[in-house]
Design goal:
The protein has 264 residues and is an alpha/beta fold. The chain is built from twelve helices and nine strands. It has a single domain, classed as Rossmann fold (3-Layer(aba) Sandwich), CATH 3.40.50.970. Helices cover 40% and strands 17% of the residues. The strands form two sheets. It has a seven-stranded mixed beta sheet, sandwiched between helices. Helix 2 packs across helix 9 and helix 5 crosses helix 6.
Length: 264
């Protein structure tokens, strides 16, 4: 009976989830509780559902984000630190029939790469950016990033971010939403199942915007970094909800009329 029960449990009739074809069968190297893996899975699911994996090119720069090419089974190139939007621009202009996306962390995108991000958006480059915001430089030791919250402790702000000395965190989605070249900019979160589902829908929409040639698109995803935050995986999800959501409200920050008019 035990054997029969086991067969029944794993039969296709009862299957509720399977690994996306565009998601490689690779053991994760990410820290316990890191939601980069969740973001990778969502991208892979969308590539499968849209049937575009074989014509998609990802661009990953320096940082934890660079390892996206190990997990998402599509063509990838590695960019210099912060330069993913510039490289994605060149690829898209050379190969306009490809779907091109940059996958970047907050230290990369909002600090050393801010100029590339802003000007790609201002030019209305028809690329997609997946922006992982976990309020610190994850790979290099947990230093303060442009998105680090007021009072948040990091290795370079051990007493907490002092806004009088170090300024205020940058709300990237809100800033890019003011630019004419932007077609679609939203902020979502990866801290619970409901918001993960909404994040996937946003990623799908962003890729659809690009396929339809409707301008620059970006999905900001609030993410965890339990190791550098000094929290357990469960605690980090709660910390995101309690501390990040008030400063970085979830929502749609720009849906251009050309995008709103299309049923996606």
């Amino acid at each position: 009976m035990k054997g029969k029960a086991m067969i029944n449990i794993i039969s296709p009739k009862n299957l509720v989830y399977s690994r996306p074809k565009a998601f490689t069968d690779t053991p994760t190297h990410y820290c316990p509780g890191c939601t980069h893996g969740t973001a990778h899975r969502l991208i892979a699911e969308v590539l499968d559902e849209m049937n575009i994996a074989d014509k998609t090119i990802g661009v990953a720069p320096v940082g934890c984000a660079v390892f996206a090419y190990n997990y998402i089974d599509t063509d990838f190139v590695e960019a210099a630190h912060g330069r993913a939007p510039a490289m994605a621009t060149g690829i898209k202009r050379l190969l306009p029939d490809r779907v091109v996306f940059a996958y970047q962390g907050d230290g990369d995108l909002a600090s050393i790469g801010m100029a590339e991000t802003v000007h790609a958006a201002a030019r209305g480059e028809n690329i997609t950016v997946i922006f992982i915001n976990n309020t610190n430089y994850g790979m290099t030791g947990g230093q303060m990033a442009p998105t680090t919250l007021p009072g948040q402790k990091t290795t370079t702000s051990p007493n907490g971010r002092d806004v009088e000395l170090q300024g205020y965190p940058i709300r990237v989605a809100e800033m890019l939403a003011t630019l004419e070249g932007v077609g679609y900019v939203v902020r979502r979160s990866l801290h619970d199942p409901k918001n993960i589902r909404l994040a996937k829908k946003a990623i799908r929409t962003a890729f659809e915007v690009q396929v339809r040639g409707l301008g620059f698109s970006m999905v900001e995803l609030l993410s965890t970094c339990s190791t550098n935050w000094g929290l357990t995986p469960v605690e980090s999800l709660k910390w995101l909800e309690e501390h990040m959501l008030p400063y970085y409200p979830l929502g749609d920050y720009k849906i251009a009329p050309s995008v709103a008019a299309v049923k996606i």
